[in-house]
Inverse folding.
């Protein structure tokens, strides 16, 4: 039997890159999937090729009403939510093809990164937890980065958002413990061939990780029961070793 047979998984940032790859993989493992991002047309194309039932609900993760609609539509369609993958994220490097010192980051740029990478995770988590608490099981997987545990110059907004995400993950785990809900952070373990690194020369892009790098780990995390590992943050290969 597939690992996630009849489970319901919500994936944010599902229209490309890491999100698209995880959607396809959890569907192959038997899960019914809600895809959410801003690009509805692209998500519909992805959903059309999935082997299991799926639902496309476009949303901006910064919009609380839109987030609420994603969760409501999922519950109406599938009746439950077993796993939330908070994958949507941006970086100024991906938006501008360059690193910027703090003195060069505008308030609007800072707000964009923090709102998508951190506020969006909070909004989706806040919306889904009551349902997971009620069913006394669930998994929240927050897609982090090595820059959630260390820092580099020129990426202040992104680093701050991912350090915040790491703390939010631990808080979610502590609050969910009594309700059978696990919360963990997962990162690729290096640079991935997605839009963030689109500016790299072709020869460098060939040397970085493929977008499916986290798929195995995401499935292992989503398959955890109420007594699973929670409050931890690791790269994909470390999770595979821990749970595989």
């Amino acid at each position: 039997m597939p690992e996630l047979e009849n489970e319901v998984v919500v994936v944010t940032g599902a229209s490309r890159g890491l999100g698209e790859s995880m959607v396809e993989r959890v569907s192959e493992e038997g899960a019914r999937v809600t895809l959410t991002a801003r690009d509805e047309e692209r998500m519909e194309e992805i959903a059309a090729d999935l082997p299991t039932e799926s639902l496309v609900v476009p949303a901006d993760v910064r919009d609380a009403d839109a987030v609420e609609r994603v969760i409501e539509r999922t519950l109406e369609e599938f009746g439950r939510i077993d796993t939330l993958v908070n994958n949507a994220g941006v970086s100024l490097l991906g938006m501008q093809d360059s690193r910027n010192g703090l003195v060069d980051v505008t308030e609007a740029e800072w707000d964009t990164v923090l709102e998508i990478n951190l506020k969006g995770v909070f909004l989706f988590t806040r919306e889904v937890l009551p349902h997971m608490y009620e069913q006394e099981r669930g998994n929240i997987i927050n897609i982090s980065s090595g820059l959630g545990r260390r820092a580099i110059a020129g990426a202040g907004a992104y680093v701050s958002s991912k350090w915040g995400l790491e703390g939010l993950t631990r808080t979610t785990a502590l609050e969910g413990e009594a309700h059978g809900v696990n919360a963990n952070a997962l990162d690729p373990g290096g640079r991935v061939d997605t839009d963030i690194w689109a500016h790299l020369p072709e020869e460098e892009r060939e040397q970085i990780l493929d977008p499916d790098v986290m798929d195995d780990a995401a499935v292992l995390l989503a398959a955890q029961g109420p007594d699973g590992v929670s409050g931890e943050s690791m790269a994909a290969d470390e999770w595979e070793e821990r749970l595989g």
Observations:
- Residues 107-135 form the longest helix (29 residues).
- The radius of gyration is 17 Å.
- The chain has a mean pLDDT of 92.
